[in-house]
Amino acid sequence: MDIDANVGGTDRLLRALGAMLLSIVAVRALVAGQRSKGLLAGIGAVGLGFNATTCFCGLNAALGIDTNEE
Fold first, then answer.
1. What is the pLDDT of residues 39-57, one digit of tens each?
2. Dihedral over alpha carbons 56, 58, 63, 68 (to 10 degrees)
3. Which domain holds residue 56?
4. Which residues cross the membrane (predicted)?
């Protein structure tokens, strides 16, 4: 399976920053005993981190959006 990169430049940087922010939110929520909030923030962090690392976003592919060549 060949995956074409469709995330790049500023979009990739913002996704990485969003993943870091959501990771902090997830850890703080879990420490405070808010499991649902921590789980949702953790899932969001993993998703954004995956997008930033692989330069691929399934939603962008489905919508025909390509920010790889900004």
1. 999 999 999 999 999 999 9
2. 0
3. 18-60
4. 12-31, 38-63
